[in-house]
Design a protein that fits this description.
The structure is a single chain. With 376 residues, the protein is mainly α. Helix content is 74%, strand content 0%. The protein has 14 helices and no strands. Helix 3 crosses helix 4 and helix 4 packs antiparallel against helix 9. The chain is elongated and about 115 Å long. The N and C termini lie far apart (155 Å).
Length: 376
């Protein structure tokens, strides 16, 4: 038997051990609970930071848009909302998505279809000329029919479409430039505050025009090589095609696209018709068959060239170099991936401006020869 005093001592010791054990267990549970809460808080903070980083940095794998044909003006509308609060435009590669319009894959598909359309149109015009070859024996020559079909269907047809798009959208895209020229430089519509908007703003009509112009340059490059027009034409088509594609991807200067790829090509479209009468690039003897037509086309070309290339071109080019110069120094995020292309555009524009002077000298020389013929 356990003595009473010993039993009392045993009971007291046991109670103390139990209390101490409970206190230790309670402290351990409290520590474990605190650690669990700290781990949960750290996990939630890390997840939140990762979500913010994902939203802020450019998406490495953006959702691919569906491949589609761009056959209407509406199909070139921007896929970026007007109020881009999340900087969605900066999250995409400019060489794939440009300034927010249709992506490059849909554009390439559309260009391919348009090039095939130009081939088909050229063939149909060739058949139409063959059907009416009884008009003059000169049309019985197959080479002559091919030359006429090329200049009428491909060259004039493509440039006519580009000019139509430009004329239709001239006020909505570059209305302030037209206002400035009408006011003879006395308007402040071309102020420095609008530089970044004129260089980096997206315009669906300009994208549509660039798409057509690039398709034309692609077909024209094929024709130039096939007909052996010369290396100078190959170089011209390379630079013109590069300017057109770069205007879409990475994309810039849509404001000036309406003039350079549209309005200024009015004189070129007339020149393509006039080229049919050239002994080197046209049909030999066609001048004798349609003498008055050649004179009318020549007069229209000279008039349009003076207006588009001699009067409007220097004014537009002055503002183009002024705006692009400031855009190169801009801290706008859109300028970061487009500086190299802006340098290329400036180089092309400078070269084409020099060519204008050569064309003026040629026009004056040809004009003197034509006047001599008329006087005699």
């Amino acid at each position: 038997m356990i003595p009473k005093r010993f039993g009392d001592v045993f009971k007291v010791g046991t109670c103390r051990d139990l209390n101490r054990h409970c206190q230790l267990t309670s402290r351990s549970a409290s520590r474990i609970s605190q650690r669990i809460e700290a781990a949960a808080h750290a996990f939630s903070t890390t997840a939140s930071q990762k979500n913010k980083e994902t939203m802020c940095r450019p998406s490495q794998n953006p959702i691919k848009p569906p491949l589609r044909l761009l056959l209407t003006h509406e199909s070139f509308n921007s896929t970026i909302p007007a109020k881009d609060d999340t900087n969605k435009l900066l999250q995409h590669s400019p060489y794939r998505y440009g300034l927010g319009g249709p992506d490059s894959m849909s554009t390439l598909l559309t260009v391919s279809v348009k090039v095939l359309f130009l081939f088909a149109l050229e063939h149909l015009v060739r058949l139409a000329i063959q059907k009416h070859s009884h008009i003059d024996p000169i049309l019985n020559v197959e080479r002559n029919r091919h030359i006429l079909a090329r200049h009428l269907a491909v060259d004039f047809g493509s440039l006519a479409i580009c000019c139509y798009i430009a004329l239709r959208n001239r006020h909505t895209v570059c209305g302030e430039l037209i206002t400035y020229m009408k006011a003879r430089g006395k308007s402040d519509s071309m102020s420095d505050e609008g530089t970044e908007r004129r260089v980096f703003q997206y315009h669906p009509s300009s994208q549509q025009l660039l798409c057509w112009f690039f398709a034309y340059q692609t077909k024209n490059m094929y024709d130039t090589i096939y007909w052996n027009d010369g290396i100078e034409f190959v170089i011209h088509h390379i630079f013109a095609g590069a300017a057109a594609w770069g205007g879409m991807f990475p994309g810039c200067c849509h404001f000036y696209t309406i003039f350079y790829m549209g309005l200024s090509e009015i004189s070129t479209a007339i020149l393509c018709l006039l080229a049919n009468f050239d002994d080197q690039f046209g049909v030999v003897g066609l001048e004798q068959v349609f003498p008055k037509t050649r004179v009318v086309l020549g007069a229209l070309f000279v008039a349009s060239f003076i207006v588009c290339r001699c009067i409007m071109w220097p004014v537009v080019t002055h503002h183009f170099f002024k705006d692009t110069s400031k855009a190169l120094e801009s801290k706008n995020p859109l300028a970061a991936g487009r500086r190299k292309f802006l340098h290329l555009l400036r180089f092309c524009c400078f070269g084409l401006s020099l060519i204008q002077l050569v064309f003026v000298a040629m026009i004056v020389q040809i004009g003197k020869e034509e006047l001599t013929k008329l006087m005699s």
